[in-house]
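Tip: read the tokens left to right.
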């Protein structure tokens, strides 16, 4: 059983992509899973917190690159770059605004789970995510004001964070205090539970997406293409700006590109247009399908670095982590 659970976690990127495909292929399943969205978010946030040691998170928070530079890039550089891009592209106003606000959102916890599935250190992206997420009630409304968006309530954002992220942090602390032994013995079970919760989440986020595609195929596919372009563009910026080896840059890129647009979506409430809702839904596609590509890229990076290590030569363009 443990081998099966370990394989489930190792094949997590493929399973997440399968959830997206299944949700698009069988819309009724996506609708059935939709009410479980809040519970699945809580489950994979809690599971991730239980699988990353608090001491490792605190060590990362003490690093200026993780606690200051990366969160500032997430909150301000990303939407600024998005604003320039949508202005040059001449996109419709509501679609352009959705892209900018989506870029201003904090990273999704999915990134940390994906990093661990790829065998990478989840502490740096988790620390950056926590800092950016708890700053979001201040930064996201500010970005909305700067770019002429609708008013976003800082209180609404804060309430959502307290219920989901804050509740998961408190629950994780209590479990570590009173059930440390069982947690240590059942790490693979927690990893498998994270994958299952993310599978249900990816399935549920596709509710209504197929109908939108069928109603206006060309426009919907264009919006999906923009969601992929924005995600990949921000990933490239993160990988280029921040130092480290290939794996470190890959995780930094994922942290900057994979955004928790659901937080902004919920805060906008009735102010959101159908086009903005379609874009926010489309943002889930790259988040859950690109990890499989990242798994392939990481394998190529490791093979390349191993070749250079075997010859005693330093890997080209390798920066020292800060």
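Filled-in amino acids:
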């Amino acid at each position: 059983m443990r081998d099966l659970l370990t394989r489930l976690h190792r094949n997590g990127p493929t399973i997440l992509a399968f959830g997206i495909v299944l949700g698009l292929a069988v819309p009724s399943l996506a609708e059935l899973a939709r009410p479980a969205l809040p519970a699945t978010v809580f489950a994979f946030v809690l599971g991730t917190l239980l699988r990353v040691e608090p001491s490792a998170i605190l060590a990362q928070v003490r690093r200026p690159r993780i606690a200051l530079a990366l969160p500032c890039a997430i909150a301000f550089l990303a939407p600024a770059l998005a604003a320039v891009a949508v202005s040059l592209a001449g996109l419709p106003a509501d679609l352009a605004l959705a892209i900018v606000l989506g870029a201003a959102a904090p990273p999704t916890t999915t990134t940390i789970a994906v990093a661990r599935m790829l065998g990478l250190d989840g502490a740096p992206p988790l620390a950056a995510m926590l800092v950016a997420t708890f700053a979001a009630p201040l930064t996201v409304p500010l970005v909305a004001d700067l770019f002429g968006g609708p008013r976003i309530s800082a209180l609404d954002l804060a309430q959502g964070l307290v219920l989901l992220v804050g509740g998961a942090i408190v629950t994780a602390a209590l479990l570590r205090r009173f059930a440390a032994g069982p947690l240590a013995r059942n790490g693979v079970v927690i990893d498998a539970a994270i994958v299952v919760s993310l599978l249900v989440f990816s399935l549920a986020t596709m509710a209504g997406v197929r109908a939108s595609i069928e109603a206006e195929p060309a426009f919907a596919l264009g919006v999906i293409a923009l969601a992929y372009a924005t995600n990949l563009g921000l990933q490239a910026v993160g990988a280029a700006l921040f130092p480290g080896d290939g794996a470190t840059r890959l995780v930094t890129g994922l942290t900057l590109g994979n955004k928790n647009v659901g937080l902004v979506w919920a805060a906008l409430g009735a102010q959101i247009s159908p086009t903005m809702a379609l874009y926010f839904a489309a943002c889930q596609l790259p988040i859950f399908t690109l990890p499989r590509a990242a798994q392939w890229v990481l394998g190529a990076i490791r093979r390349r670095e191993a070749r250079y290590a075997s010859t005693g030569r330093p890997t080209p363009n390798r920066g020292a982590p800060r």
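The longest helix spans residues 284-311. The radius of gyration is 19 Å.
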